[in-house]
Write a structure and sequence with these properties.
This protein has six helices and seven strands. It has 199 residues and is α+β, with helices and mostly antiparallel strands. Strands 1-2-3-4-5-7-6 form a seven-stranded mixed sheet, with helices on both faces. Helix 1 crosses helix 2.
Length: 199
């Protein structure tokens, strides 16, 4: 790493920076702008667990990248956060419904992925970089920590909206491919991919 670059426990104050990056990818242009930010934040929070696999890289105190992981059966606080904003904000019933569908989609795919996992396996729940080239060091630190803790295999799932081709090109084995009907369009199946790799 270069001088001034540090890897530390992810700080939740950096959530808005990640949301600004991922919102155009994770939301539909038809969404109200304020709702779309909450929707993207819900996806993000659904992938953050309060454990030792919640890492960020900063350069001169500027947030650059993050990697998040979890183990089989671990829970996070995304549902609590969603319930709190529903109580505070003025969302339509349709918007609340899509919040819940989104959360169910993530939780169900986590559950499916973890059905393949054993106690010495770890899940990479999310990996994001705001600056090109800054993702690799935080991911390498994540993997080294996993090895040091005795984890043997890395699992992850991704979908058609992400760069899923990266994984088979980097030694990941496809263990399942499915179609999520709710997000599919005519002649455009919404595919979900489940991968594993030895550590």
């Amino acid at each position: 790493m270069s001088a001034g670059t540090t890897i530390s426990t992810f700080n939740f104050k950096n959530i808005p920076q990640i949301v600004s990056l991922v919102q155009p990818i994770w939301t539909d242009p038809s969404m109200r702008k304020s709702y779309a930010r909450y929707y993207a934040e819900l996806i993000l929070r659904s992938n953050i667990f309060e454990n030792n696999f919640r890492l960020q890289l900063e350069n001169e105190n500027k947030f650059c990248s993050a990697a998040f992981g979890t183990v089989k059966g671990e829970k996070n606080l995304a549902r609590d956060w969603l319930n709190s904003i529903i109580q505070k904000e003025n969302f339509s019933q349709e918007e609340i419904l899509w919040f819940k569908r989104c959360l169910n989609y993530i939780e169900n795919n986590d559950k499916k992925l973890q059905s393949y996992m054993k106690e010495n396996d770890i899940q990479l729940s999310l990996f994001v970089s705001t600056i090109k080239g800054c993702g690799k060091p935080v991911l390498e630190e994540f993997l080294q920590r996993a090895r040091n803790c005795g984890f043997k295999r890395l699992f992850l799932w991704t979908d058609i909206e992400c760069n899923w081709q990266y994984y088979p090109d980097h030694g990941f084995e496809l263990i399942e491919e499915s179609v999520y009907d709710l997000y599919s369009k005519p002649d455009q199946p919404y595919k979900v991919f489940f991968y594993k790799k030895a550590l």
